[in-house]
Design goal:
heterodimer; A: 116 residues; mainly beta; Immunoglobulin-like; six-stranded mixed β-sheet; four-stranded antiparallel β-sheet; 12 strands; 0% helix; B: 113 residues; seven-stranded mixed β-sheet; globular
Chain lengths: 116, 113
């Protein structure tokens, strides 16, 4: 079974600074997907970024980028120019594509606070 | 991305009763998922619901406790049966996107007294 580990329960950073959230995972699969989700106090789960394991290039979405190290099974999220609206719980998630059972396995989350 | 709504958004229920949560999607989707998020915790998959077949439950979740219906490609319900305070959680439905990502509904916050 796959496991996802987020070793930073809480983090805080000043507005406009850069912050990196860590995620490691354990799998014997070669083909899989990794995701970062954001859950603000409104509790809506929002997809931040997606990475396909077979792609070496790190995914980027505006201020959000990942550092995907497949051999090390590491998938960190970097938030640049952090904004107050980035305050949320961030969950790393793993998914093995398998038709009919494409479930997400989530990490325990990192609570990020952006300080004005 | 899909637009997903859930009803109710929150409820307070007495132990021993049942609550049915509805999930509506604005487009046809093959797979829908139901997750539970206990207070201060991460999300755990309860079951996967495919239209036209029985739901597939994860270890630790059983159909008698969490019956699921999937009558068409845009709608699903999850029932939490014979509730106890331990069932107090946020329940979220999600649907699969084209790139294997999942899109989530706003969640149902359930409190059992």
């Amino acid at each position: 079974a796959q496991t996802v580990t987020q070793s930073q329960p809480e983090m805080s950073v000043q507005e406009a600074e850069t912050v990196t959230l860590s995620c490691t995972y354990d799998t014997s699969e070669n083909n899989y997907y990794l995701f970062w989700y954001k859950q603000p106090p409104s509790r809506q789960m929002i997809l931040v970024i997606r990475q396909e394991a077979y792609k070496q290039q790190n995914a980027t979405e505006n201020r959000f980028s990942v550092n995907f190290q497949k051999a090390a099974k590491s998938f960190s999220l970097k938030i640049s120019d952090s904004q107050l609206g980035d305050t949320a719980m961030y969950f790393c998630a793993f998914m093995k594509p398998y038709f009919g059972n494409e479930k997400l396995t989530f990490g325990t989350g990192t609570r990020l606070t952006i300080i004005p | 991305s899909a637009v997903i709504s859930q009803k109710p958004s929150r409820d307070i229920c007495q132990r021993g009763t049942s609550l049915t949560i509805q999930c509506q999607v604005d487009s046809q989707v093959t797979m829908m998922f139901w997750y539970r998020q206990q207070p201060g915790q991460s999300l755990t998959l309860i079951a996967t619901a495919n239209q036209g077949s029985e739901a597939t439950y994860e270890s630790g979740f059983v159909i008698d406790k969490f019956p699921i219906s999937r009558p068409n490609l845009t709608f699903s319900t999850l029932t939490v049966s014979n509730m106890s305070p331990e069932d107090s959680s946020i329940y979220l439905c999600s649907v699969a996107g084209r790139g294997y990502e999942q899109y989530f509904g706003p969640g149902t916050r359930l409190t059992v007294t």
